[in-house]
UniProtKB/TrEMBL annotation:
Organism: Anaerovorax odorimutans
SUPFAM superfamilies named among the record's database cross-references: P-loop containing nucleoside triphosphate hydrolases
Family matches, as InterPro entries: AAA+_ATPase (IPR003593), ABC_SmlMolc_Importer (IPR050093), ABC_transporter-like_ATP-bd (IPR003439), P-loop_NTPase (IPR027417)
GO MF annotations in UniProt: ATP binding
Protein name: ATP-binding cassette domain-containing protein
Lineage of the organism: Bacteria, Bacillati, Bacillota, Clostridia, Peptostreptococcales
Keyword annotations: ATP-binding, Nucleotide-binding, Transport
Pfam families, sorted: ABC_tran (PF00005)
Occurrences of domain ABC transporter (ranges): 3-228
Length: 234
């Protein structure tokens, strides 16, 4: 799914926290949104997902200024699962969409295998570790073949092994199912491993966008360079 922004702003109580003259997310990309705290990253993601309303401006989805809700899914940093087993959580979006039981079983089985969840399909959601919960939330989000997957710091509080599993799945689903992936991350090493494009935000502004490896290795903007170098941005 191709996204573009035009004169996109969001203000709260008179304070503008996001002000994007323009910007884009290419269809089929794995785009990382990076920047310091308060840059507007989560605000942008919530606007794309339709969880918040812009103060002004537009977001275009494949050229249309309306949200194709059935094609978008969002995974939060702290996800919420229904009070049921792992497999029922993953199957839930498919049951809502009227999938046949055979197709549901096939999709749930595939996602469990890919994310190393097969041995815990019958495990109750409230007994899962943080990493397991995040994997189930990702599997649930991917269950119905979304065209756009949005993730807000999905590996911020989990162990390296689970992080590696999630990153591998993001790349696989992007390459094989052509799902456009948009990932907020503070982990620049993760952005290097996972993303092919990057948007760098600061103070609600889009400072630089383009090829991830180029931006992360040799940014053109001085603010981006300082952020990548680990300097404090005031």
């Amino acid at each position: 799914m191709e996204l573009s922004f035009e004169h996109l702003t969001r203000a709260y109580e008179g304070k503008t926290v996001l002000d994007l003259e323009h910007g884009s997310i290419k269809s089929g990309s794995r785009t990382g949104i990076i920047g310091p705290n308060g840059a507007g990253k989560s605000t942008l993601l919530n606007l794309i997902a339709g969880l918040d309303q812009a103060t002004s401006g537009k977001i275009y989805y494949n050229g249309e200024a309306r949200i194709p809700g059935e094609a978008i899914t969002l995974v939060f940093q702290t996800p919420y699962l229904i009070s049921a087993t792992v497999e029922k959580n993953i199957a839930y979006p498919l049951k809502l969409r009227g999938w046949a039981e055979e197709k549901i079983e096939e999709r749930v089985g595939f996602l469990c295998e890919e994310l190393n969840l097969t041995g815990m399909r019958k495990k109750k959601a409230w007994k899962l570790s943080g990493g397991e919960t995040q994997k189930v939330a990702l599997a649930r989000a991917l269950s119905f073949h979304p065209r756009l997957l949005l993730l807000d710091e999905p590996t911020a509080n989990i162990d390296p092994a689970t992080t590696a599993e999630i990153e591998k799945m993001l790349i696989k689903i992007n390459e094989e199912e052509k799902t456009t992936v948009v990932l907020i991350t503070h982990n620049l090493a993760q952005a290097r491993r996972t993303c092919d494009r990057c948007l760098f935000l600061k103070g609600g502004k889009l400072i630089e966008e383009g090829n991830a490896q180029q931006i992360l290795a040799a940014p053109k903007n001085e603010l981006t360079r300082k952020f990548i170098a680990g300097e404090l941005l005031i």
